[in-house]
Amino acid sequence: MDAKEYLRGIRKISYQIKEKREEIATLQAQIEGGSIGFESDGTQSGHTDTERNAHMIMDLTALKDELDHQSDMLILAMEKAIRLIAQMDDPLSQSILRLRYVRFESWESISTDLNYSVRHVHRLHAIALGEFQRILDKM
Fold first, then answer.
1. Please, which residues have CB within 8 angstroms of residue 74's CB and are 6 or more apart in sequence?
2. What predicted TM-score, i.e. pTM, was given to this entire model?
3. Among 35, 48, 58, 109, which residue carries the largest CB count within 10 Å?
4. What's CA 117's distance to the chain center, in Å?
């Protein structure tokens, strides 16, 4: 696996967690709303609110379990990345990778923090990825 792909995997898990949290919030709002379903002719739909809520609660429980699993995966991936980044010789390379892939900062934010242009941060990032790749290859 290449360094960039490895580090991007952390960000991907983080986005999946965010999406899962949004799904959970939406489903919780639907459960708490408790609206009655009606057919197009105005009659009440076949499912009672109790049945519908039971299904939604089961879905909510499954989503929360998935969220817990993804959160555990994120923690493990971040801990491993932090340990690997700490093995790098160059403190500046460590900072760039930590800011980008552990704290999820934008290139602009990183350039401001380090007092470099965005373009120069991109160059330094490429160097940092090379150093990180060498550490990955040793594993």
1. 10, 13, 14, 17
2. 0.76
3. 109
4. 27
Q: What single-letter amino acid sits at 125?
A: H
d(CA 114, CA 90): 14
List for the chain the helix, strand, coil content (%; round to 5). 80, 0, 20
Q: What is the pLDDT of residues 7-27, one digit of tens each?
A: 999 999 999 999 999 999 998
Q: How many CA atoms lie within 13 A of 100 on its CB side?
A: 26
Q: How many residues does the chain have?
A: 139
**β-strand partners of 44:** 38
Answer for the pair 2, 133: CB distance below 8 angstroms, yes or no: yes
Is there a contact between 84 and 136 (Cβ–Cβ < 8 Å)? Answer: yes
